[in-house]
Design goal:
Blueprint lengths: L9 H9 L4 H9 L6 H6 L7 H13 L13
Length: about 80
């Protein structure tokens, strides 16, 4: 998990977790775009997210409990 939120406010916690440029876009692509793998997210990004930024955002979203990480089957 990330550091403790600055306040107990749920709206503030959401902004802290999702308030950067890319986190909502990544969540959109996972939830509505059906993208489940790093390469799918990177290769089909209409906004052109860089691989290091995608990696960072995915790690943060997992740390915040908004996504889970699973090992891909061989060949994926």
């Amino acid at each position: 998990m990330r550091d403790e939120p600055r306040s107990g406010c749920a709206i503030n916690a959401a902004v802290e977790a999702l308030g950067d440029r890319w986190s909502l876009i990544v969540l959109r692509d996972v939830v509505f775009g059906g993208r489940r793998h790093f390469r799918e997210l990177l290769g089909h990004s209409e906004e052109g997210i860089a691989s290091n930024i995608l990696s960072s955002r995915l790690k943060a979203l997992v740390a915040d409990g908004l996504l889970t990480r699973e090992q891909a089957e061989r060949g994926h």
